[in-house]
Amino acid sequence: MNILKLFLLILCVAVPSVVLFYNKAALACEMAPFIGFEAVQAELYVDASLSNAQRENLIAQVHQAKNRVEAAFGKMQSSPRYIVSKNPAYQQAGFNPTGMARSALLRECVFIGPKGMNVDVIAHETAHVEVFHRASFFTKNFKIKPWLLEGSGTYVDYRAPLLLENINIERAQVSRVMGLSDFSPKDTWAYQASRVAFERIDPKTLYGGIERLNSGESFDTVFGKQH
């Protein structure tokens, strides 16, 4: 019995350790206070690459981004950790110079690079982490399709190429993106097609739809089949 307990203890320690080791973003998220980042407010960490003025502006931008997400989809349940840096060393390590959202061991995390220090990118990534927070492990990794995730992100992202009035895309491309299991951040057309596809959804039902996925319903049942 003692051997079994020891084995389970080792397993509980080893699995998260391996996950963190191979997921540098998750590791950086958890270790932010210990790797050169300081908190400018609760769960908002920056490094020395940001000036005092940029830090103050960032606080306002994060607040505006959260408000935009809540206005679109409803009150947030997550309290994501934001990590912001202009240091090119992080880009060399594989971090997106604009922004990215990741799940760590204990929390959701938004990384913002030098090209993403604006309300649009912060809102986009905040929408992602709220979806991650509400989705079960199985739903997040095996049920949610990228067009829904990026469609909700682009819904609160008002950068010009992602505004509906600026998108000129064929119906076939929208159908194509709805069938993809993944696409590259470089594929602007896929983000635009996801934005168009998201129009089929009432944004106020997004969170409820995720709950339905968690409860076992299929993605097509909840969010509609590809047309």
In short:
By secondary structure, the chain is of the alpha/beta class. The chain has helices at residues 2-22, 24-31, 52-73, 88-92, 119-134, 137-143, 146-155, 171-178, 188-197, 206-214, 219-223; strands spanning 38-41, 44-46, 81-84, 99-103, 108-112.
Task: Output the keywords.
single chain, 227 residues, alpha/beta, 2 domains, globular
Topology:
Layout: H1 2-22, H2 24-31, E1 38-41, E2 44-46, H3 52-73, E3 81-84, H4 88-92, E4 99-103, E5 108-112, H5 119-134, H6 137-143, H7 146-155, H8 171-178, H9 188-197, H10 206-214, H11 219-223
Parallel strand pairs: 2-3, 3-5
Antiparallel strand pairs: 1-2, 4-5
Helix pairs in contact: 1-2, 3-5, 5-7, 7-9, 8-9
How much beta, percentage-wise?
5-15%
The CA-CA distance between the termini, in Å, is 56 Å
Order of helices and strands: HHEEHEHEEHHHHHHH
Task: Please indicate the count of domains.
Answer: 2
Arithmetic mean pLDDT: 89
Shape: globular
Instruction: Please tell me how large the radius of gyration is.
Output: 19 Å
How would you write the strand order of the largest sheet?
A: 1-2-3-5-4
Report the oligomer: single chain
Q: How would you characterize this protein structure?
A:
The chain has 227 residues and is of the alpha/beta class. The protein has 2 domains: 1-134, no CATH class; 145-227, no CATH class. The chain has 11 helices and 5 strands, in the order ααββαβαββααααααα. It has helices at residues 2-22, 24-31, 52-73, 88-92, 119-134, 137-143, 146-155, 171-178, 188-197, 206-214, 219-223; strands at residues 38-41, 44-46, 81-84, 99-103, 108-112. Strands 1-2-3-5-4 form a 5-stranded mixed beta sheet, with helices on both faces. Strand 2 (44-46), helix 3 and strand 3 (81-84) form a beta-alpha-beta unit. Helix 1 (2-22) packs across helix 2, helix 3 (52-73) packs across helix 5 and helix 8 packs across helix 9. The chain starts with a helix and ends with a helix. Residues 13-22 have low confidence and may be disordered.
